[in-house]
Amino acid sequence: MGNEQTILHAARPLKQTFSEADANPHSRRSFLAPFAVLLLLLAAWAIRDTKLYEPGDDVGYYLGVIGGVMMLVLLLYSLRKHIGFMRNWGATKHWFRFHMTLGILGPSFILIHSKFHVGSINATVALSCMLLVAGSGIIGRVIYRKIHHGLYGRSATLQEVQTRLGIAENDVRSRFHFARDLLQRLKDFEVAATSPTQGFWHRILTFTTVGLRARWTYYSISRKMDRLFKSHAEKSGWDQATLERRMQRGRKLFRRHLDSVVDVARFTAYERLFSLWHVLHVPFVFMLVISGIAHVIAVHMY
Question: For 136-154, what is the mean pLDDT?
């Protein structure tokens, strides 16, 4: 009975496992806030050709000031990580939430300030840099979410990913102890999919093909797995109902383990992508700061 419960636990639907980490108020707010900002931008787009305000009048000017200040203040998140006395200023997850919020609101105010038009060269450069940084930030947010518990939580580990999937390698090996060839195929797939020595392009290839390879691995050995179960059933004295029940649950367990290997392989690829993204994002931010300062100076020199 205990063995069957283990297999049943491992065969839980994949969506159930992952939904638990994201079923929280922050996840709902992380959807509603951008949606509200999008509505605001659509409203601003609708009135872009009206005379309600201009980038150079008081309303337009202060919209730009608000957006610019937000873009500067969000840099405190980066400073906090590198300046010792700032590291104790609150929890990292709150700072990250603050950073993401200003990273959405700041560019939005700048776009509304510009009325979605650019005139001078310095304004064009500043707006282009801002959109580049904002786009990069959105990409980083997507990658970040793939390797953290929720959106603002701590970093997950490979072992935690497997645990969240509800399966451990030992469960599979204990269930298929009578099928050494099958276990070797499983091990070969694990090594090929999760090898830490893969280069960047190899990891990209793994990321895009590992799901298909997992399906092919399961398909190619499923018949052999059934034969092994039947042979083991004869030796163990199982009746037909027990055999069919354990074959079905065994197949689910095997698929479950392949799913965990796929998820771990993609997890490592996301970790690498996040590191590369960070290398690119920081120079973009410096470009934005320099172009923004140049734009402010140019505006006040007119």
Answer: 72
Amino acid at 250: G
Q: How far apart are the first and last CA of the chain?
A: 82
- Which run of H or of E encompasses 113? helix 92-114
Please tell me the distance from the alpha carbon of residue 29 to that of residue 8, in angstroms, as a whole number: 34
H helical segments located in 120-237: 121-146, 158-164, 169-175, 180-194, 200-236
Residue 232 CA to residue 76 CA, distance in Å, equals 63
Contact between 109 and 64 under an 8 Å Cβ cutoff? The reply is yes
Which two three-digit tokens encode residue 277? 């993204």
CA distance 27 to 112: 27
**pLDDT given at position 23:** 41
Rg, C-alpha atoms of the chain: 27
| 129, 287 contact by CB (below 8 A) | yes
Residue 70 host element (H or E): helix 58-73
pTM for this one? 0.60
Question: What gap in Å lies between CA 28 and CA 22, rounded to an integer?
Answer: 9
| Residue 80 CB partners (closer than 8 Å, separation 6+) | 86, 87, 89, 95
- What would the mean pLDDT of 149-154 be, rounded to a whole number? 54
